[in-house]
Specification:
The structure is a single chain. With about 80 residues, the protein is an all-alpha fold. The protein is built from two helices and no strands.
Length: about 80
């Protein structure tokens, strides 16, 4: 047997195994239906109330405050 025929035989054997695996694999499980709430359960659900945001948490202006005078300038990382 030549090396080419041995390679072809090995290729065909692998192809037979792959084809048999694909042909005999089980089908995927059917998808289950999504759970649904009963009307009684829907009646029990209350909409959640959003908390009132505190006045101190709201920004007064869109402009950030200027940096303090004693803070050193940060380097931008380019070595200058």
């Amino acid at each position: 047997m030549t090396p080419l025929s041995k390679t072809f035989l090995a290729f065909m054997a692998i192809a037979v195994v792959v084809a048999g695996t694909l042909a005999l694999r089980s089908s995927p499980a059917p998808a289950t239906a999504a759970a649904r709430l009963t009307p009684a359960q829907l009646a029990e659900i209350k909409p959640q109330q959003k908390p009132q945001p505190s006045l101190s948490a709201q920004p007064k202006d869109d402009v950030p405050p200027p940096p303090a005078e004693d803070e050193a300038e940060l380097e931008d990382g380019n070595g200058s």
